[in-house]
């Protein structure tokens, strides 16, 4: 016989892995397609600094985050611009969203298109990772293996800092006040 049992078993095992990977990918894509918005708590590690807060993403490309710090920091994107405002210091930073890596993380259609082309890798028994390289930038997007929910991302920010964001306590497709995504005004 051309194939012995050992090789046949190995081939069957290989195809089972490919089928499982395809199934995970399809499930993640379907979950993203069904998601209009998500609210979550986050832990963000930028270099060695850790920040915590709560965010709401409203696809496409809108986000509102409040940081749990004494400074009163918020981050808001209206889909075109991104503002970081620190209430207690008066600091106000305005960026074109398209110049930030968050632009891609907040673009559900971009994520779906990229995931369709990529292979998933398993970070641990609970996390699935897709690594996207776009415009010479690497973005790691993490999903929960069981629920297929977005679980976080790792990017390099506009200041070349490594930024790892993990999310928890996810609520999907909530009724939102669209005014949440209006850019805050600068107050001096």
Model description:
Helix 1 packs antiparallel against helix 3. With 188 residues, this protein is an alpha+beta fold. It is globular and about 50 Å long. The N and C termini lie far apart (82 Å). 23% of the residues lie in helices and 43% in strands. The protein has an 11-stranded antiparallel beta sheet, with no helix packed on it. It has helices at residues 5-34, 102-105, 108-117, and strands at residues 37-46, 49-58, 62-67, 73-78, 81-86, 91-96, 121-122, 127-134, 137-144, 150-156, 162-172.
Q: How many strand segments?
A: 11
Whole-angstrom Rg: 19 Å
Q: Helix coverage percent of residues?
A: 10-25%
| Gross morphology | globular
Instruction: Record the strand order, biggest sheet.
Output: 6-5-4-3-2-1-11-10-9-8-7
Main features:
188 residues, alpha+beta, eleven-stranded antiparallel beta sheet, 11 strands, 43% strand, globular
Q: What is the topological layout?
A:
Layout: H1 5-34, E1 37-46, E2 49-58, E3 62-67, E4 73-78, E5 81-86, E6 91-96, H2 102-105, H3 108-117, E7 121-122, E8 127-134, E9 137-144, E10 150-156, E11 162-172
Antiparallel strand pairs: 1-2, 1-11, 2-3, 3-4, 4-5, 5-6, 7-8, 8-9, 9-10, 10-11
Brief digest:
With 188 residues, this protein is of the alpha+beta class.
